[in-house]
């Protein structure tokens, strides 16, 4: 990215045609400068690789609006989950490293983040995960969501089956709060792995 802006700064150079460039690397600020520079013409599908430092969600979204190619970047760890959810990147093409620092999040928000990157979402700082039993199990089942081993799981809507609660229990040593669906038999209830 710096090379392209340097070219534009040369005497008598008024525009730079970079349509044949397939990959642009640099800090997010350097790549952002290319996007914002109307006198540098790029391909519509170049790869953008942030190889130094981190980026904000807004910066990554600006680059995403400029290319359909893969974006590789690490999001600054001060972004909250509400902001991370506004990423316009997609799992199929983009490798966005992100760390969720919120103390409590919904399971649905975590699975939403997973759809925005091809690499693992780090949620080891999250102390409480809430949602339906199905939503929390979806987090447990998703290999690309990395949680802590003792998060609190709270089913805030609906009921859960014994199998669902046992699956969550196998994923965390933290407190699980849930109501079991009333169609479970006594023999099934006795297989609960939770403790008093």
Molecular structure report:
Helix 2 (28-36) crosses helix 3 (57-64), helix 5 (107-114) packs parallel to helix 6 and helix 6 packs across helix 7. It contains eight helices and twelve strands. The relative contact order is 0.09. By secondary structure, it is an alpha/beta fold. Strand 5, helix 4 (81-84) and strand 6 form a beta-alpha-beta unit. Strands 2-4-5-6-8-10 form a six-stranded parallel beta sheet, covered by helices on one side. Strands 7-9-11-12 form a four-stranded parallel beta sheet. Strands 1-3 form a two-stranded parallel sheet. It has helices at residues 2-8, 28-36, 57-64, 81-84, 107-114, 133-141, 162-171, 186-189; strands at 16-18, 23-26, 40-42, 47-50, 71-74, 95-99, 104-106, 121-123, 128-131, 145-147, 152-155, 176-177. The mean pLDDT is 94. 30% of the residues lie in helices and 21% in strands.
Quaternary: single chain
The residue-averaged pLDDT reads: 94
Order of helices and strands: HEEHEEHEHEEHEEHEEHEH
State the secondary-structure class.
alpha/beta
- Rg over CA atoms, rounded to whole Å, is 22 Å
Specify the overall morphology.
elongated
Q: Could you give the count of β-strands?
A: 12
Span between termini: 59 Å
Which percent bin holds the helix content? Answer: 25-40%
Task: Provide a brief overview of the structure.
Helices cover 30% and strands 21% of the residues.
What is the topology?
Elements: H1 2-8, E1 16-18, E2 23-26, H2 28-36, E3 40-42, E4 47-50, H3 57-64, E5 71-74, H4 81-84, E6 95-99, E7 104-106, H5 107-114, E8 121-123, E9 128-131, H6 133-141, E10 145-147, E11 152-155, H7 162-171, E12 176-177, H8 186-189
Parallel strand pairs: 1-3, 2-4, 4-5, 5-6, 6-8, 7-9, 8-10, 9-11, 11-12
Helix pairs in contact: 2-3, 5-6, 6-7
